[in-house]
Amino acid sequence: MDKTTDIRREELKKNTPFNMILVLTITAVVVGGMLAGFYKLVEPTIEENRLREERRAVFSVLPGVADYSVIEKRLNKRDVVRIFRGVDQDGRLIGYAFIAEGPGFQGIIKMMVGLNVDMKSLSGLKVLEQVETPGLGNKIMEKWFEDQFRGLSIEPKIEYIKNRKPEKPNQIQAITGATITTRAVTEIINRRVRVVIDIIKEAETRDSEG
């Protein structure tokens, strides 16, 4: 029996299912540890960028805002509502901004929404995150679509119409070929804005009594 045959037999012994599983497990643990360490390293930067983007969005959907404070309420273990109360340079209330997110056609859609002081109409919309279909659903990030929400009535609720221009103050025009995404945007905002209004009224009542 030659040396080559012995070497091959030794290699076959090493490549048993147990050894392969052991190697894969060790590799997974090492790689997982490296990724966890890397995420911990970059997490402060990610959070800083998120807050910066969030701040820019607040100023975008509340024209004339100079500063803002935050109203926060936990609805359940997962859902925390953060409302940005925007004021002008003289401290006068401009309006409110809040984050609304929910499922779209491809994944989660996350938006910053501006609400006027009268709490009957919106002051703006800025899409923060989306993974909708390129060339169709992702048009929700285009200026023409976002601009439809400036001054848009939320009473009785936001609606969308297809293949024609809006006829009522609470209507927007749907994106051609992306009705599901358009519907998702309106439904996400309609759900969230009612919750936000209730929280604002609750906070105002508490402040007046205090």
Describe this structure in words.
By secondary structure, this protein is an alpha+beta fold. The longest helix has 45 residues, at 17-61. The termini are far apart. It has a five-stranded antiparallel beta sheet, sandwiched between helices. It has a two-stranded parallel sheet with strand order 6-7. It is globular and about 70 Å long. The protein folds into two domains: 3-44; 62-209, no CATH class. 22% of the residues are buried. The chain has helices at 3-14, 17-61, 143-147, 179-209, and strands at residues 67-74, 80-87, 93-103, 108-116, 122-129, 159-161, 171-173. It has four helices and seven strands, in the order ααβββββαββα.
Radius of gyration: 26 Å
List the secondary-structure elements in sequence, H or E.
Answer: HHEEEEEHEEH
User: Reading side by side through the largest sheet, how are the strands ordered?
Assistant: 1-2-3-4-5
Number of domains: 2
Instruction: Tally the helices.
Output: 4
Strand content: 15-25%
Major sheet attributes: 5 strands, antiparallel
Helix content: 40-55%
Q: Low-confidence parts, pLDDT < 50 over ≥5 residues?
A: none
Distance between the termini: 95 Å
Overall 3D shape: globular
Rounded mean pLDDT is 88
